[in-house]
Amino acid sequence: MNSKVVFGQYYNSDSWLHRLDPRAKIISMFLIIVSLFLIEKLTGLLIAFGLTLILILSSRIPFSKFLASLKMVAMLLFITVIFQVILSKGTVAYSFPLQLNLVNSLIIVVLFVLYFLSKRIIRKFRFLLFLMIVAGGFLLQHYLKIGPVFVDYDLTVYQDGIFNSLIIIARIVSLIFISSLLTLTTKPTELNNGLEALAKPLKKLKINVSVMTMMISISLRFIPTLLNEAEKILKAQASRGVDFKESKFKDKITQIVSLLVPMFVISYKRAGDLADAMEARGYIPEATRTSINLLRFRFADALVLIMALLIFGGLIYLKASGLYAV
After folding, report:
1. Which of 38, 46, 136, 221 is deepest in the core (most CB within 10 A)?
2. Which H helix or E strand runs over 115?
């Protein structure tokens, strides 16, 4: 299993979150996610982020698993923060001159060239290295003033931009951590049983709930598997001289097609194998299905659900009364 992909994986441990009823976890997660969008102040989001960290620590899951879930959105968060800080208007927080001359421009260009050339040597912490080069570029342009000046600009950072960027980071990181917490502490079979139990009212509308929930759980289960297969294909093509990162845009389109074709073939093959396995075990979609693992709603499940409902209801009340969540 690809350890880089967190969403859809299950981490075996013996914590109180693992022992909770999947129905309580699904409903509580949904209420908490909606509550995060109701909070508009930075203080409230920081409190929610702190509570999320407490849940992560109590789950007995390595924190590196949750940090790995941020890799795919790290660059997007960085670009969003930059645009928020620079483009937002309001009270000026910082203002410093940005001067690019011949010497510091050449040094900055060399640093970025070395960064792109080092991707074959340094595979980990590349985003941290990128941030260090950006910070070093700002320091060079501020202290190293030799040669003719090409760019002379006053870079202004506003307080509203800083607060807005912190709000975005706190909300998105909390959302990713909470969604990862659900999949890491819930087995695919338990998730399927929980979704099927919650979707029982749809049976009155002649909707086959068991088939729908089975498809959802299978899709979540095979996300890491398919990404792992894609990584194997990329490594196999790289061993044959194909490089997705250094080729031209026209060549990248051809290379993407060469990746999609085997991915579709692998997906169809796995779907066929799964269908044969389910048919061999006597699975009939139209038949009434029972589960060997019965869901039991305990006191801890009720307590967690009540806490989530109180948080959600309190935020709704504050929103309706014209107040903002602190």
Report:
1. 221
2. helix 102-117
pLDDT at 183 over 50: yes
Cβ atoms of residues 197 and 295 within 8 Å: yes
Instruction: Give the integer Cα–Cα distance in Å for 161 and 170.
Output: 14
Residue recorded with tokens 């910070």: 135
C-alpha gyration radius of the chain: 25
**Tokens 């208007």 belong to residue:** 89
Find tokens 């009155």 and name the residue.
Answer: 204
CA distances from residue 180 to 8, 24, 26, 156, 250 in whole angstroms, order as listed: 8, 16, 12, 37, 36
Encode burial over 228-263: b for 16+ CB neighbours within 10 A, e otherwise. bbbeebeeebeeeeeeeeeeeeeeeeebeeebeeee
- The CA-atom distances, in angstroms, between 190 and each of 23, 194, 296 are 9, 6, 12
pLDDT value, residue 306 = 93
- Predicted TM-score (pTM) of this structure: 0.68
What gap in Å lies between CA 237 and CA 77, rounded to an integer?
30
d(Cα 255, Cα 279) in Å, to the nearest integer?
A: 37
Q: Which amino acid is at 311?
A: I
